[in-house]
Predict the 3D structure of the following.
Amino acid sequence: VNSAIAPVSVKRAIASVNTALRLLVESTIALTEAQAVKMLASCDSTSMQDIRDRALLVVALETGMRQHSMLSMQIEHTHLRKRPPYVLTARQGDTAPMAVALSDVAVFALRPWHNLIDARPAASGPLFPVKPLSQRAMSRTAIQKILVRRGRAAGIERLTFGMLRASFIAWRPQLSQTELAMILTPEGSAMGIPERVLNSTPPWLKEIVIR
């Protein structure tokens, strides 16, 4: 753990994970493996819409990011060639940037979409725009429609970012609460994430994303 991080920040990070874990236990909201496979299979073509939706869903499943943070991602602050790869984004109610590390699986799913929108005349703008060459970010309504459409393909009536975040936690029982906090919280992102933690993707998920 980075000694420069105040102990209270680390405690806050772990408390956030404890809250998420408690909600996960109290509500059956994590996706099953079968549901996740069906959901990702629904966006498995080479169409721009499918490439975008697959990237968005895999990044959400691999980082546990909330909706606001996903919509705040900018292409000029997405660093796929760094080690570890990361994206700068923001959490709701806070303008300070936070670094979110990306697993190999997240990078693999994100790169085709990143390459498409990198062709925009301006080398900046939202990572998930309304259209590939647009400078306008998707609205909350638009991103919710994506979740609903892809969730129904997996037999889920109303898919939410909370369910994707819960899935991130549920699929990594081998990680401690401190290790989960390294990825799930802005305080944790500064801790220095071991390779084992960053790439703790379930083998079945890695297999269907990286083929």
Observations:
- The first strand starts at residue 78 and ends at 79.
- The mean pLDDT is 83.
- The chain is about 50% helix and 5% strand.
- The radius of gyration is 16 Å.
